Each structure stands twice: as C-alpha cells, then as structure tokens.
Amino acid sequence: MIETKQKILDTAEQLFGEQGYGATSLRQIIAAAGVNLAAIHYHFGSKEELLDQIILRKAEPVNRERLEMLERFEAEAGGGPVAVEKILEAFLTPAIARVAVNPGFSKLSGRLLGEGLMPAIVEKHFRHVAIRFTGALARALPELSPVELEWRGFFVIGTMAHTMCSKPQTNASLEGMEAWKVLRRLVAFLSGGLRAPATETSGTEVNR
Amino acid sequence: MIETKQKILDTAEQLFGEQGYGATSLRQIIAAAGVNLAAIHYHFGSKEELLDQIILRKAEPVNRERLEMLERFEAEAGGGPVAVEKILEAFLTPAIARVAVNPGFSKLSGRLLGEGLMPAIVEKHFRHVAIRFTGALARALPELSPVELEWRGFFVIGTMAHTMCSKPQTNASLEGMEAWKVLRRLVAFLSGGLRAPATETSGTEVNR
DNA sequence: GTCTATACTGAGATAGAC
DNA sequence: GTCTATCTCAGTATAGAC
After folding, report:
1. How many CA atoms, within 13 angstroms, populate the side-chain half-sphere of residue B139?
2. What Cα–Cα distance (Å) separates residue A74 from each residue in A88, A92, A96, A130?
C-alpha cells in the first residue's frame, strides 16, 4: 500500500522533529507507524534517504513561496532593486510561518545546517533559491563585492538556522504570534548587518 | 595510568574534530589511542561525558581570553561603555584564532550549538561568559530593551556558530590568514545588526 | 509490487576477574 | 586500574510470503 509509505513519512517527520535525526531510531518509527522495519528500506533504501524525502516534502513549498514573494516584490519595484528588508522578508517569512504552526518543523529544518551532516541534502534542496536571493541582494547592495556578499548571505543563513533550531533561554518559542515579533527582529538585525559598510577596500583586501 | 586518560582525551578530541561527535565511535578512539574500550567508561563514564571533558578543556582558555580582552577594553574605556565592535572583537577573536590554527577545533566547537545539541554542556561552560558580554552590550546599546538585547545576542551566537562549523561553498576555510578577514567581516556584519534601530513599537511586550 | 520475518554487523554500556 | 566477555540496541540486508 502507498498508505504505508505515507505513514512512515508522517511518523518519521514528527519523530525527527521532536528528537532529532540521530536520536530517532528506525525501530521507533516503525513502532509508532505500525509498519514493518523492512518497509522503510523497501520504500526509501536507508534512513538518510528517508530524511531526504522528508526534507524535500517540506522544503519544496517553502522555497516556492520564497520565490513567489521575491518575484512579487520585484514586480512592485518595477525593475529597480528590491529593498534589503523586503528580500529578507521574502526569504524568512515562509520558513518562520511554518515554525509558528508546527514547532517540530523548526528543529528538523534548523538542524539540517547544524547536525553536521547532510550538507549534500541542504545543497540539493536550497542551492537554487540561495542563488536567486543572492542575485537580488547584489542589486540591492551594489557597493558590496561578490565575496563580501557571499559571506553576508552566509551569515544570514547562520542566523536563521540558529533561530529556527534553538531559542534564547528565557524566552518562549517561535510558536503562535511570537513568530511575527521574531521575524521583525530578524529582519531588523539582518538588514542592519547586510547594510554595514564593507570591510574591504576593493582589490587587495589586505589593508584595513 | 593517568597517561591512559590523557591519551583518550587527545585522541578523541582529534577524531571528534575530524569526523564529528556522532560519526566517531568509541572503538575508533580506542584503536587509535591504543587503550581498552572499558577504559573510556572507567575514566569518563560515557561517550557524552568524554565530550564534556574535551569541551571543558578547550572552552576554559577561550572563555578566559574573552573575559580578559573585554576587561582590557573596559579599562581603556575608563568607565564609559565599550564600543560594540570592541565587544564583538573580544568575544570572537579567541575562538576564531583557534579555528585558524586548528581546523578540527571548528567542527567540534561550532557543532555544539547544532549537533544533537547538548544544551546542558553549552549552558554549563558558556553561560557566565554570555551574561558578562550581554551586560557590556547593554551599556553599549542603552536604547535596546532587555528582550531585544537578548534576541540580538542570540543572533550573534548563531552567526558565530554557523561560521565556525560551516563555510560558504566557494570560499576557503578559516585557516591561516583567512581567519582575520573573516573576523573583520563578522564584526562588521554583527555590529551593523546590533546597532540596527529597535523593532519594538507596539506595547504588547515593552511593558514587562 | 508490497510487505513480513529474521539474521548480520557494529555501536555504547556493564559486570566481574585480575 | 585494566581487560575480557557479554548485553542490548542500532542500521542494514535478504529470503520469501502474499
């Protein structure tokens, strides 16, 4: 039955989100899903492939929304550059919105960049989006060199990942309305960072 | 022998750094160190406790340097607030410097915030430093509310962690002289973010 | 094509002899 | 303090039932 595959996907997604990828065993998943152990390897081949399918299922709509939002802002800008804040909003909102609704989503997606592994998975599912947004940022911040821009985009990813998979000690999670405050804080912080004066004098980059 | 304990510590630190914590087995460690499997459990109790000891050994001098640098800057400021850039420099330099010398250090320390994340370990070893630096930031940025400040400090940690455990695709690592360029970029980006105008306008959380 | 039962290898942990 | 032997549980692989 294809129902089996869906049940594995749903259950694994939930457990990975709650406990993390490494801490969740396949036997836990099959017990909760009520399926056989070998069914996982029949449908997915390996634990890592299972994770890959889950990521894909989650990332695809997020990335689509991101691109749609960015394109809408670009249309509104009518050929001119889109403001940094808008670009960040387009990039962050679809992800944060899901975290707000489903907390399990946060750990799962946030950990992708942290759990050490699967840089290949991240690369595969998010690379084209990153390229698209870096291009928009380059137009918004023409004074930054490509190298500088790449690093700043990298910093943005790091902040987002950390925000999605952890939280400040004292404060509540990203759930519910809190998420929108966090989004505002993120956009403010990151746009401040992106707009900071470049550190390099173009060309040599050695003197400060 | 005490030598056994040291040998385990050194070997495990190297292997954790090279392959990550989860991907390194105790049997790998004992083979490389030339000791018995049970010796690890005798001296450390568990794999996680072993990691904890390694972290402690590494984190202690880093944190001491951080506090020393901060205190030096505070003395130079003569009672007044220390500039945001200086605070960031004091916080980031000791860690980045070690990454520059020992790349294995990066994966190990950077992953603490991402991998299966022993929040207890991080909490234990870095909490007092975080409090100290947050205090300095509060004096440097008096216009920010405590909540806003906490979030921004959280964003700083995220950016640093991501930078220490990953790297932009095209670019080289943090090794050697590259590290100082990265440090400059980090300070520029993060100070821009920290200095951004506060986002709080509505009264829902300002009064607390 | 799907799924079940079962076996295989290697992981971390532990008890007890020395 | 150290080591051997052993336990449990992980991910994986395969043979065969429907």
Report:
1. 15
2. 13, 16, 21, 16
Amino acid at A85: E
Question: pLDDT tier at B58 (50, 70, 90 boundaries)?
Answer: confident
Is any atom of strand C within 7 angstroms of residue B43's beta carbon? no
pLDDT at A117 over 90: no
Query: Which is nearest to A142 in space by CA: A194, A86, A181, A193?
Result: A194
Q: How confident is the model at residue B56 (pLDDT cuts 50, 70, 90)?
A: confident
Least trusted range by pLDDT, from A33-47, B49-63, B76-90: B49-63
For A126, residues 6+ apart whose C-beta sits below 8 A from its C-beta are A59, A63
pTM of the predicted model over 0.85? yes
DSSP A135-152: HHHHHH-TTS-HHHHHHH
Q: Mean pLDDT of all residues in chain B?
A: 86
Residue A20 has pLDDT above 90, yes or no: no
pLDDT at B205 exceeding the cut of 50: no
**CA dist., res. B141 & res. A72, Å (int):** 36
The answer to whether A143 faces chain B, any CB pair under 8 Å, is no
* C-alpha span between B84 and B174 (Å, rounded): 23
Q: Which tokens in the block code for residue B139?
A: 């004096």
B171 is written with which tokens? 């670019």
Sign of the Cα torsion A178, A181, A187, A188 reads: negative
Rounded distance between C-alpha atoms, residue B191 and residue A115, angstroms: 27
Alpha-carbon span A113 to A180, nearest angstrom: 23
Q: Is the CB of residue B187 less than 8 Å from the CB of residue B86?
A: no
Q: In this predicted model, what pLDDT tens digit does every residue of A27-47 receive, in sequence order?
A: 999 999 999 999 999 999 999
Mutate which of A128, A145, A166 to disrupt the B interface (most B C-beta within 10 Å)? A166
Q: What is the mean pLDDT of residues B176-180?
A: 78
Find the radius of gyration of the CA atoms of chain B: 19
Q: Do B161 and A158 touch (CB under 8 A)?
A: yes
d(CA A129, CA A67): 7
